Amino acid sequence: MLNIDLSLTLATLIFCIGATGVLVRRDPLVMFICIEMMFNAANLALVALANHFGRIEGQVMVFLVIAVAAAEVAVGLAIIIAIFRTEKDVDVDTISTMKG
Questions:
Q1: How far apart are CA 53 and CA 94, in angstroms?
Q2: Exposed, middle or buried: residue 59 (CB in 10 Å: 0-12, 13-18, 19+)?
Q3: pLDDT one-digit tens code per residue, 46-71
């Protein structure tokens, strides 16, 4: 049986590590990895709660989160590659090409 307290504590810890990484690091690839950690923490919480309440909806939502994460990575990496080809620098603080 999955212990709900340990699962939610682990999900909270993983989410906090990911949020800290997004706020502290300036490399876009590391930021994407940290965002994926946050998505996985949400997935862990959804699965733990679905298991705790004996429902399947949480596990169905995990598939939606995985699909959104895959789309986010595909679009984000395409943007990073396009910026790197034109700017030769992918530092988040110096990128201003996305301004209108």
A1: 47
A2: middle
A3: 999 999 998 899 889 999 999 998 99
Give the Cα separation of 45 and 35 in Å (integer).
15
Contact 48, 2 (CB under 8 A): yes
Question: What is the helix (H) or strand (E) element at residue 74, kind and residue range?
Answer: helix 57-87
Q: Give the burial class of 21: count Cβ atoms within 10 A of its Cβ; 0-12 exposed, 13-18 middle, 19 or more buried.
A: middle
Q: Provide the whole-model pTM.
A: 0.81
First to last CA, the chain: 52
Opening angle at CA 36, ends 27 and 69, nearest 5: 115
- Taken in order of first residue, the domains within the chain and their CATH numbers are 4-87 (1.10.287.3510)
